[in-house]
Specification:
By secondary structure, the chain is of the alpha+beta class. It contains 4 helices and 12 strands, in the order ββααβααβββββββββ. Mean pLDDT is 86; it is low at 1-10, 13-24 and 34-44.
Length: 216
């Protein structure tokens, strides 16, 4: 049905019922393209530059860890500070590579079962009389799926180091993660500091490799 109506100057106009035209504007096109571009680039946001290829972490594992890092590390490349492949299995050497470093450090452990786990320390590892660190410190595991264990606030037993061992977490008489002075034997147990489960497949494990990354 066609209806006529007259404008101010007596011109006759007509309208067609139930017919509509969809007009696509330049803004609509740009908006859709922008969404597509953002989706395509988004994974790159969580893929930092590494000073050396990681022998322990896959690309998707690096992306997952990057999303969990403290804000003050964002935008900085990952610098390989220590690795057992380059520096040997020695806690003393590990401490020596930390000297002069002023950045959080990410420790990645691979055990003899092929499991990957570790910790983000709020400051470089050092020999200490007691525990040190802040609530930025967290534990993680990829055994078998990725999990992050943040500070619960229950205590402040973040990191403790001496020449015989390096340990994370405490409460209840157990460490969340403990490595011996030869970086050969390790142990993981649930603890109150991080509310974590055992990070490795077994509580006691043999260390195969370690990488420690700084952000600078």
């Amino acid at each position: 049905m066609i209806r006529f109506w007259y404008g101010k100057k007596g011109r006759r106009h007509h309208s067609v019922k139930n017919k509509y035209n969809l007009i696509t504007t330049r803004e609509d096109i740009n908006s859709k393209q922008g969404t597509t571009i953002k989706t395509e680039l988004e994974p790159e946001v969580f893929r930092p530059n590494l000073s050396d290829p990681s022998e322990l972490l896959q690309v998707e594992q690096i992306e997952k860890l990057t999303k969990c890092l403290p804000p003050r590390t964002i935008g900085y490349p990952w610098t390989l500070v220590y690795s057992t492949a380059k520096h040997g299995m020695s806690l003393k050497t590990l401490y020596r590579t930390m000297m002069g470093l002023d950045t959080p450090v990410l420790m990645v452990v691979k055990d003899s079962d092929g499991q990957i786990f570790g910790a983000l320390a709020s400051e470089p590892f050092k020999v200490s009389d007691g525990f040190y660190g802040t609530g930025e410190t967290f534990l993680f595991t990829f055994a078998p799926d990725f999990e992050k264990f943040s500070w619960t606030g229950d205590n402040m037993f973040f990191i403790k180091g001496d020449m015989d061992a390096l340990a994370f977490g405490g409460g209840g008489g157990e460490f969340a993660l403990w490595l011996d002075g030869d970086l050969y034997h390790g142990r993981s147990h649930s603890c109150k500091t991080f509310g974590n489960r055992t990070l490795s497949k077994k509580e006691d494990f043999i260390i195969q490799d370690i990488e420690i990354w700084g952000f600078e």
